[in-house]
Structure formats: structure tokens, C-alpha cells
């Protein structure tokens, strides 16, 4: 039996002991502002007056400290202004409401389950695979892969942004994204946050690398259609039910004109997204954040190499949508 209460206290104590000049992550900053925020939130989540109202009980992996931290931190800032809330009780009550809504969605409430043909999240996660006839087309159009970890120990997700638009593939991309988010919660975060510690830097999300080398002003219309669909899905599902999934996002190889357009687009995104996303004209930031030796060759340089090497394929992290 896992002693989650002690685990919470170990994390809180380790973060409280960090030097003041530490470059704090969001999880660390939250627990510096509210030193007992995690253990207080667990007590609320486990209280009978809340737990008995949930449409479905929390699964064991949802009791993990990183899961609770995600939902607590998600309500720390006001969505539009980005200003931090200062009363812990208010933050945690909003977080409880968010967990309740997420459990409703997971239980099968929502038009998407009927549309996709699944009863609930468990059935979706356990049985979904990318249709064979679509797999090759999707991988060529909107390449997505997990490979290695960055210098802070967080897993890295790479995307090669598409310069064309394929309406018929959008739903499959959205499903794969959600399956991947679910896999990160159920597996990656458990793997990277052990009960034995270390405790001082909880890994809640991943580093996203979005490579825009294929984009140009000529592909703006296709890019806009693709990203509009993805942003719409994000607002419906990811932002609501997978908070703090992205530790940071690095948009690279944009060029000066597209940097301006992306920065304008970011203004309509939630405050947490704006604060964790940076846009770059080249890809030098990858060496600083990840290290060239840990970046797949096709993302390390700007050649037309669009495939992993044989060695890189053998080191590729398992992608749940192709199981």
C-alpha cells in the first residue's frame, strides 16, 4: 500500500529546502507559495463529501502526487489575466470542481464518445489503434514522436508541423493526441516520479518541440486550418482534462515573419500556455534545452531528412496509438 500522505510531505519538504536562487518550475513555485498545498489538496480529494460525489472513483494512478499537483496548479492563475490567485482554499475548491468535471468526461459524458464510437475513456484507451489505412498517411503528414529526455529529465515530444491540410485525417490526429496525453498520465509520469524520490522537482509534463521548417507564407492557409482544428480540440479536451501536460513548448525554425504571426496567435491562448511557449527563428535552443546528442538527427539539422536512423528507431519511446 502506497503511503501517499508521506510522499506528499517528502515533496513539500524537499521543495521548501531549495535555495532561493533556484530557477523554480511551476510545481516548485506553487509549493513555495503554498508549502502544504499538495497534502491539503489530497485531504480534500479523499474527503468523503467529495470522493462519494465523483461519477467514477479515482484510479490508482490518479492518486499519484503529480496528478493532484497538475489540477491544483491549473487553477493557480486566472485564465485570461494570468494573475496568480493568492488564497489556497479558493484555488483548491476550483481544482476539485475541475477533477469532478474530468471524471464525468472520463465516465462517458460528452458528445465525443458517441462520435468516436467508445463508451468511455477506459475503453478508448485500451482498444484504440490508428486505422492501418491511415497510419502511413498521418505519419507523413503530421509526424509525432517521443524521443529521449531533456536536460531537466522531462520526456521530449517532437512534431514536424505540416504545410498541407487534410480534413479527413484531423479526427485521427486528435484521437492520437488524447491517447498520448492519457499514456503520459498513466505511464510516463509514474515512471519518471518514483516513490523513492528524488522529490525536489516533480515532473508533471513534457517538453514539446514543434518544428516549423516546412512552413512558409505560401502554406499559411493550410497551417491556419490545421492549427485551428487542433486549438479547438485543445480547448475542449487537453486544457480542461490534461492540465500542465506541457512543461514547455519550443516552436523552432519559424523565421522572422512566422514568429510575428505565432506571437500574435499566442495572445488568444490561456495564460499558462503563453507563459510556457517560446518561438525561435532557428533551432539552436534544442542544444541548450535538450543537448544535440539527445536530439534525433532529423530534428538536429535542417536537411530534408524526414526519417529516424535505424539506431534512433530502436531507441524510440513506445507510441500508444500504434499498439
- Output the CATH homologous superfamily of the largest domain: CRAL-TRIO lipid binding domain
Mean model confidence by pLDDT: 88
Compute the number of helices: 16
Query: Which CATH top level class of the largest domain fits?
Result: Alpha Beta
In the predicted model, the low-confidence regions spanning at least 5 consecutive residues are none
Radius of gyration: 20 Å
Helix share bin: 40-55%
Order of helical and strand elements: HHHHHHHHHEEHEHEHHEHHH
How many strand units? 5
Main pleated sheet: 5 strands, mixed
Alpha-beta classification? alpha/beta
Shape: globular
Quaternary organisation of the protein chains: single chain
Give an overview of the whole structure:
- The protein has 323 residues and is an alpha/beta fold.
- It is 52% helix and 9% strand.
- It has helices at 4-16, 26-33, 37-46, 48-51, 65-74, 88-106, 111-116, 121-127, 132-141, 167-192, 220-241, 255-266, 271-276, 285-289, 297-300, 310-315; strands at residues 144-149, 155-160, 206-211, 246-252, 277-279.
- The mean pLDDT is 88.
Task: Give short descriptive properties of this protein.
single chain; alpha/beta; Phosphatidylinositol Transfer Protein Sec14p
Structure in a nutshell:
By secondary structure, the chain is of the alpha/beta class.
SSE blueprint:
Blueprint: H1 4-16, H2 26-33, H3 37-46, H4 48-51, H5 65-74, H6 88-106, H7 111-116, H8 121-127, H9 132-141, E1 144-149, E2 155-160, H10 167-192, E3 206-211, H11 220-241, E4 246-252, H12 255-266, H13 271-276, E5 277-279, H14 285-289, H15 297-300, H16 310-315
Parallel strand pairs: 2-3, 3-4, 4-5
Antiparallel strand pairs: 1-2
Helix pairs in contact: 1-3, 3-5, 5-6, 10-11
